[in-house]
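Page 37, continued from 36.
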């Protein structure tokens, strides 16, 4: 259903370095870019995450209540993405671990512009 998610940034170069390293952990690479926009995906026909400087020229701001979830297959990947985000200067929003009893395992963080993301997987059906 989701084709891509776009997050605003006030520093495209800084955001690019953050997401190149972070998303590289799960095999995502840049597949589209120009002077204001970069998109990463594991394949061109899979959902993508992109960053852009706002088209209207105003500063990028964080959406209150907005979060992007990055799907992975194992808890170790959740832990690695969360740790890498913090290593790259992101902020912790909730350490990796199980959430509830449904098999949902997630770690929450903010990128360098304050956008909230998580990495998650399902540990059982």
């Amino acid at each position: 259903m989701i084709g891509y998610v776009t997050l605003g940034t006030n520093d495209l170069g800084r955001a690019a370095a953050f997401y190149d390293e972070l998303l590289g952990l799960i095999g995502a690479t840049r597949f589209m870019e120009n002077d204001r926009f970069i998109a990463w995906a594991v394949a061109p026909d899979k959902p993508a995450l992109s960053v852009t400087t706002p088209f209207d020229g105003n500063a990028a701001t964080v959406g209150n209540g907005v979060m992007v979830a990055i799907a992975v297959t194992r808890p170790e990947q959740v832990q690695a993405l969360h740790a890498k985000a913090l290593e790259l200067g992101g902020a912790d929003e909730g350490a990796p671990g199980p959430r509830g009893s449904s098999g949902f395992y997630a770690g929450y963080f903010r990128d360098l512009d304050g956008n909230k993301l998580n990495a998650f997987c399902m540990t059982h059906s």
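Residues 4-54+66-122 form a domain with the 2,3-Dihydroxybiphenyl 1,2-Dioxygenase; domain 1 fold (CATH 3.10.180.10). Flag for discussion at group meeting. The chain has a mean pLDDT of 96.
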